[in-house]
Design a protein that fits this description.
elongated, 2 domains, 14 strands, 4-stranded antiparallel β-sheet, alpha+beta, 10-stranded mixed β-sheet
Length: 253
């Protein structure tokens, strides 16, 4: 138990006297330590909530494995992410996009986005899967559709992939030959390149559907376990900062 507080000590210092020593810290160090600890705790909370969000996203993805329903007149913008839908239309094989910087098991490649002209006149982007990088970036892979372009694709609705930083975005180059190369584009970028409005979400073509490539769909980014580990790490930093604050200001008498 403290014997007394340092009533006659320096007003710029917080002092407590004990029977075995004295604890003394400047108010500036106390304020800085408080700010650091609060920041570390909040960063931990942020990672913890991100873990919860990833769990909910994974649950929504698994729920999307239910039987598909007809898209009908519904807008994809009004449907939850990973909703399983079926739609009939005709692929526009002459105007396709290759999403660059898409890897699979560490191998570089592209995801193939093909416009589907729905029977009611709307246009939906169908992600037909992943293809590996060719020997040269100047030689793009062939993504032609063999046979009749009419199709009734089934799959999950999803947003276009987003980069870790905004600098990763590269919209299709104006007047570039087809298929057009792009990296983490916005729907508006692809709509401008095609000259037609597009549905808000893409369709991830199911693995059992024709006209597709490698389709190992899963929730992107790191898993919830990693976010929990990051949260514990930040809270550990908070405890360490608080422990150092106490230890470095302890003086034996």
């Amino acid at each position: 138990m403290p014997a007394r507080s340092g009533g006659r000590s320096n007003p710029l210092t917080l002092t407590l006297n004990f029977s075995r020593g004295r604890w003394s810290a400047s108010w500036l160090m106390t304020l800085l330590t408080l700010v650091v600890v609060v920041c570390f705790v909040q960063l931990g909370r942020w990672q913890w909530h991100r873990a919860q969000g990833k769990r909910e996203l994974a649950a929504a993805f698994n729920a999307g494995n239910a039987a598909a329903s007809e898209l009908g007149a519904r807008s994809t913008a009004a449907l939850p992410r990973y909703t399983q839908v079926r739609v009939h239309g005709r692929y526009d094989a002459e105007h396709q996009f290759l999403l660059d910087n898409m890897s699979h098991d560490g191998a570089p490649g592209y995801q193939v986005l093909t416009p589907l002209h729905i029977d009611d006149g709307r246009v939906l982007l169908v992600n037909r899967g992943w293809v590996p990088l060719t020997r040269s970036r100047h030689e793009l892979p062939s993504v032609a559709i063999d046979g009749d372009a009419s199709a009734t694709p089934t799959g999950k609705l999803d947003a276009l992939p987003v980069p870790g930083i905004a600098l990763g975005r590269l919209p299709p180059a104006p007047d570039a030959p087809w298929p057009q190369l792009t990296s983490f584009p916005l729907v508006s970028d692809l709509s401008a390149a095609l000259g037609v409005p597009l549905e808000a979400q893409q369709l991830l073509l199911n693995p059992d559907q024709p006209h597709g490539y490698l389709r190992d769909w899963h929730v992107g980014g790191i898993g919830p376990e990693r976010h929990v580990a990051y949260a514990v790490q930040w809270w550990g930093f908070a405890a360490l900062a608080l422990g150092l604050y106490v230890r470095l200001n302890w003086h034996r008498t």
